[in-house]
Amino acid sequence: MRNLRRPFQVIRANLRVYLVMNAIVYGMLLIGMGAALINPELNTAQVASLEEDGTADLVTTLLGNVWLFTLTILANNVLRAGLLYILLPSMVVPFSGIAVFAYQAFIVGVILAPVDEGLGVAMIPHSVTVLIELQAYALLMLGVHLLGNAWLRPKTAGARNRRQGYVHGLRQVGWLGLPALALLIIGAIYEAFSIIYLLPLLGVG
After folding, report:
1. Which segments in the chain show pLDDT lower than 50?
2. I need a surface site. Which of 21, 115, 163, 166 has the fewest CB within 10 A?
C-alpha cells in the first residue's frame, strides 16, 4: 500500500508543476482544435497525411478484432507518445520532451477538431479517451520535469551531484509512470471498444 501511495505523494509534493503540465497538454489540444476550426484546411492536411502514411488503412484492418486493436493503440501510446516523444528526448536534453509533446498535442487537436457534423458526433465518446490519455501524458511530463530539475540542480533533490540527481529523477519518472501506464491501458480499452461498438450506434463510421 505504501508503494501504491508513492505516485500520489510525488504529485501532491509538486502540485503546481502538475497543474501546469495539465494546462499545457489540454491547452495545446484546444488551441489545435481552434486553429482547425478557423482554418479547416489544417485538419484536411493532417487527415490526408494519416492516409498517406498508412495509419488510416492500419486502423481499418484492425477493426475486426477489438483486443488486437486495443493492443495496437496501447503500444502506440506507450512506445511512440510516451517513450519516443516524452521520455527519451528528456533523458538526453532536459525538459525537451515537454516541448515535443506540446506540439504533438496541438497536432492531435487539429486532427480531432469537429470541422464537420460527423467529427462532432464522434468527439462525444472520444472526448473521454482524450481526457484519460492526455492525463497519462501530463503525469509523464511531470516526471521529466522532475528529472530535468534534479539533473540540473541536484541539491534541490537532495543529491550530491548531477549523476545522483539524474538517478533520483529517473526514480520519480518510474513512480509516475505507474499510474500513467494504468491510464493508458484503460484509455486503450475504452478507445477500441468505443470506435468499434459505440460509434456505429451513433451513425459514425
Report:
1. none
2. 163
